[in-house]
């Protein structure tokens, strides 16, 4: 009997050990990959991608976007900015043309209008139009598995008219003389034009606490890596002074302000702001309304307004520009490639907007379903090549320890832009004819270089004439 008992115990111990051994062997396979913490080093060489989930695919879903994330890595993308993923208010939901969807009598026609992403009805829920919270989690996991960070488009200035705070905390909102909650107003009291949202009043201390609480939820519970904050300059700066340190205390994060104000970049508030005026210079030069001299003024303005560790986002398009001001083709014409290359080589971080990588040539609808093209043309290989250079060449660092920017002299200064980026003894040069006319110019540059875009060798000699066709550009590396 003793021997039988001993046999049974030995057998159970053996199987127990084998089970634990197999479980231990399985553990590494089931462990989720941990992405490195957000860091200044990442920001130096990053490309950021703005994802319009609704319009990215026929399905308009998280899942349809998630499966393409590994491809975005090929473009050098290190940060995905998701346009608002939250439920959209039904009350005062906007329709194309400016009217409210509720004013449309035909119920089938009314269904077409999905409203603005920026009329949020709940900051802690997922828009069912895009999928479920599990689908969102899979998106974040896939991005992290590909060493890409995810930031959410946050809308702190206002809410949709269905937000629960309108019932539970009406004191959170701006009110007129009659005590009525208002949509956002200009300084003179006139409407901004965003009738589908209710303006938040940051004089209320409890609102501030509630906003920070909702932001923290996505950092601590859902693993996102920061925020792009809509109209950040319209929210009192002292709120950001109060809020951002609390957010950063939870984890290392990346903060992008939809704003130009330099004060938002001070004291470790936001990491990056919009290069709006840089973008406007490109649009105006492309149309012949300004010249390279205006670009040079902008570069000097940046030096005077911003500190050396401030980052600006460079872009030739984004969701606002595409839907309201025109496609890349409409605004930049035949100069589109030269200005895209400029966005990557100038100081800062370049942006890709959904559809840009697929040569999108139409304005996406904003309040109803639309779809970007998904066929690779000329833009994909261009962005892939530019993204590789941005990711790997120290002379294109554009973060808190950016490479230097030095203008080079051209004898045709109003049309030819030439500059040098340099760091740690490495250099990259941009030379471009930013005009519709062919030019012959002399450039203050000597030596032998590789034209990065086609691997041709180019020799520059002192006093040499350089012929450039309209919108022709070079990116030169030693």
Compact description:
This protein is of the alpha/beta class and 478 residues long. Helix content is 33%, strand content 18%.
Structure description:
The structure is a single chain. With 478 residues, the chain is of the alpha/beta class. It has two domains: 41-404, Glycosidases (TIM Barrel, Alpha-Beta Barrel); 416-477, Golgi alpha-mannosidase II (Immunoglobulin-like), CATH 2.60.40. It contains 16 helices and 18 strands. α9 packs parallel to α10 (237-248), α11 packs antiparallel against α12 (292-305) and α15 (336-345) packs parallel to α16 (379-392). The chain starts with a helix and ends with a strand. Mean pLDDT is 94; it is low at 1-30.
The main sheet comes to:
8 strands, parallel, barrel
CATH-scheme architecture of the largest domain: Alpha-Beta Barrel
Provide the CATH superfamily of the largest domain.
Glycosidases
What would the principal axes of the Cα set say about the shape? globular
For the record, the count of structural domains works out to 2
CATH class of the largest domain: Alpha Beta
Q: Any low-confidence stretches, pLDDT <50, length ≥5?
A: 1-30
Mean pLDDT: 94
Q: Give the helix level as a range of percent.
A: 25-40%
DSSP helical segment count: 16
Computed CA radius of gyration, to the nearest angstrom: 26 Å
Coarse structural class: alpha/beta
Strand order of the biggest β-sheet: 1-2-3-6-7-8-9-10
For the record, give the distance between the C-alpha atoms at the N and C termini, rounded to a whole number. 85 Å
Q: Which band does the percent of strand residues land in? A: 15-25%
**CATH topological fold name of the largest domain:** TIM Barrel
The total beta strand count reads 18
């Amino acid at each position: 009997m003793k021997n039988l008992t001993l046999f049974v115990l030995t057998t159970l111990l053996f199987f127990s050990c084998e089970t634990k051994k197999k479980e231990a062997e399985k553990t590494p396979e089931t462990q989720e990959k941990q992405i490195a913490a957000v860091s200044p080093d990442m920001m130096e060489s990053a490309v950021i991608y703005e994802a319009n989930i609704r319009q990215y695919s026929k399905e308009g879903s998280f899942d349809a976007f998630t499966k393409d994330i590994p491809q975005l890595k090929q473009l050098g993308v290190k940060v995905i900015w998701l346009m608002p993923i939250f439920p959209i208010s039904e009350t005062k939901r906007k329709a194309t043309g400016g009217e409210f969807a509720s004013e449309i009598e035909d119920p089938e026609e009314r269904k077409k209008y999905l409203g603005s992403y920026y009329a949020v009805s709940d900051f802690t829920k997922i828009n069912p139009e895009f999928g479920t919270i599990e689908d969102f989690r899979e998106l974040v996991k896939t991005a992290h598995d590909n060493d890409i960070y995810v930031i959410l488009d946050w809308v702190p200035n206002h809410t949709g008219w269905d937000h629960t705070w309108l019932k539970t905390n009406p004191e959170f909102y701006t009110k007129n003389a009659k005590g009525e909650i208002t949509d956002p107003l200009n300084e003179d009291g006139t409407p901004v034009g965003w009738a589908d949202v209710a303006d938040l009043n940051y004089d209320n201390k409890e609102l501030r606490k509630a906003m920070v609480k909702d932001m923290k939820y996505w950092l601590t519970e859902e693993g996102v890596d920061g925020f792009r904050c809509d109209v950040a300059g319209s929210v009192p700066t002292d709120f950001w002074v109060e809020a951002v340190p609390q957010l950063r205390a939870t984890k290392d994060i990346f903060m992008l302000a939809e704003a130009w104000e330099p004060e938002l970049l001070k004291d470790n508030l936001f990491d990056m702001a919009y290069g709006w005026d840089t973008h406007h210079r490109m649009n105006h030069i492309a149309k012949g309304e300004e010249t390279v001299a205006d670009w040079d003024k902008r570069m000097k303005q940046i030096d005077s307004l911003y500190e050396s560790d401030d980052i600006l986002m460079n872009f030739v398009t984004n969701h606002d520009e595409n839907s309201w001001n025109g496609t890349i083709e409409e605004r930049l014409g035949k100069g589109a490639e030269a200005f895209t290359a400029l966005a990557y080589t100038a100081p800062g971080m370049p942006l890709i907007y959904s559809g840009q990588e697929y040569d999108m040539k139409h304005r996406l609808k904003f309040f109803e379903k639309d779809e970007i093209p998904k066929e690779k043309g000329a833009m994909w290989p261009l962005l892939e090549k530019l993204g590789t250079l941005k990711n790997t060449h120290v002379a294109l660092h554009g973060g808190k320890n950016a490479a230097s920017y030095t203008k080079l002299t051209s004898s045709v200064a109003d049309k030819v832009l030439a500059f040098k980026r340099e760091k740690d003894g490495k250099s990259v040069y941009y030379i471009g004819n930013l005009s519709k006319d062919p030019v012959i110019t002399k450039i203050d540059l000597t030596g032998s270089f590789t034209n990065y875009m086609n691997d041709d060798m180019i020799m520059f000699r002192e006093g040499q004439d350089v012929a450039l066709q309209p919108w022709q550009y070079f990116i030169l590396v030693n």
